[in-house]
Amino acid sequence: MARRTIMHVDLDSFFVAVEQVLNPDLKGKPVVVGGNPQHRGVVSTASYEARAFGLHSGMPAVTAARLCPDAIFIEPDFSKYGDFSRRFMAILNDFSPAIEPRGMDEAYLDVAGFESVHGSTRHLAHKIKQRVRDELGLCASIGIASCKVVAKVASDASKPDGLVEVPHGEERDFLAPLPVEKLPGVGKQSAKVLRGLGVNTIGDLSRTPSHTLRSRLGSAGEMLHRLANGIDDSQVLPPGEAKSISREITFAEDTRNSSLLEATLWAQSERVGADLRKQSKQARCKGIADRKQGRG
Fold first, then answer.
1. 32-57 per-residue burial string, b: 16 or more CB within 10 A, e: under 16
2. What is the enclosing helix (H) or strand (E) of 150?
3. What number of CA atoms fall less than 13 Å from residue 164's CA on the CB side?
4. Distance separating alpha carbons of residues 19 and 81, to the nearest angstrom
C-alpha cells in the first residue's frame, strides 16, 4: 500500500467554544452546554475550567451543578453549531479534497501529496490551526500519522490546542505506553475483559496473541490487535447519503438511574430530531440500542 499521511483534526470543546466566541464574557469561566439542572438535563460539553471540577459529557446536570456551583449552564443551539461546523469543513476542504467528517467538530484528511505545497506536513497543520483560529475563533487539535487510528489517538493526546505528529514506522512505539482505554474501539466492557487478561496498556494489547483476544472478544479482538500494532488500512472516505441518523453516549460507569437514563434519552432524541429537521426528512422507524464491545 502506498505511504499515506493522515490528519485527524478535532475542535476543542466545540459547543462551549462556539458559545464563548459569540459571548466573550464566557471565556475563562466554567461553562456547560447541556440541559437545565432543574429539568433532568445532562452535560453535553463542558469547558476545561468546568472539567477541573470533574464535569464531563453525559453527567447529569444536577450532579454537575453540585460539583461546580459556579458553572454557567447554556441550552444547546444546534443551528449555531451547524453554521460553525460548515465553515470548519470548508476550511479543511481548502487543504485536501480527501476529507471524512466525523460529526460536527472533527474530520480525517488524507494530505499525502499536499505537503510539498505547504513546505511540510507540520506547516500544513499549523496553517489549518491558524485559519480555524482566525476565521472561527476556535482551537483545533491535530494528530498526524500514517493511518486513521493513530492520527485519532495523536489528536486526543494533543488536546487542547495541540499538534502531535507520529513519524512513519513509530506508530507502535507511540501507542504502546498509553492506557488500553485510549485505543478507539476499546469500551468499558472490553477494557474490563482485557484487564482481566493482564492487558493494561496498548503495548500489552499488541503483544497479546490474536487468538487469545478472539476467544474473549470475538472478531473485535482481532481488530483491536491490529489497531494496537498501529495497523489500520481504512481509507479516508467522503460522506455518502446517510441511511440512518443516530446519536450515542458512553457513561462513565454502569447505571440503573432511571432519571439519568430518561434525561439522556430525551437529549439524544432532540439531537436526532434536529438533524432530521435540518435535512427536511422524517424517520421511517426508530429504536434504541445498547452497544457493547464485540456485539451489535
1. bbbbebeebbbbbbbbebbbeeebeb
2. helix 148-158
3. 20
4. 9
Site of grid cell 461546523: 85
pLDDT digits (tens, 9 = 90+) for 158-195: 999 999 999 999 999 999 999 999 999 999 899 999 99
pLDDT higher than threshold 50 for residue 149: yes
19, 49, 100, 106: the catalytic one is 106
Please state, as a whole number, how many other Cβ atoms lie within 10 Å of the Cβ of residue 140.
Answer: 30
Q: What predicted TM-score, i.e. pTM, was given to this entire model?
A: 0.79
Cell of 256: 440503573
User: What one-character-per-residue DSSP string does 193-234 give?
Assistant: HHHHTT--BHHHHHHS-HHHHHHHHTHHHHHHHHHHTT----
Does residue 255 carry a pLDDT above 60? yes
State whether the Cα torsion 116-119-122-124 is positive or negative.
negative
Q: Indicate the pairing of strand 72-74 with strand 163-165.
A: unpaired
- Domains of the chain with bracketed CATH: 6-11+78-169 (3.30.70.270), 173-228 (1.10.150.20)
What is the residue type of 116? S
Residue 106 falls in the annotated catalytic set: yes
pLDDT tens column, 102-137:
989 999 999 988 877 888 999 999 999 999 999 999
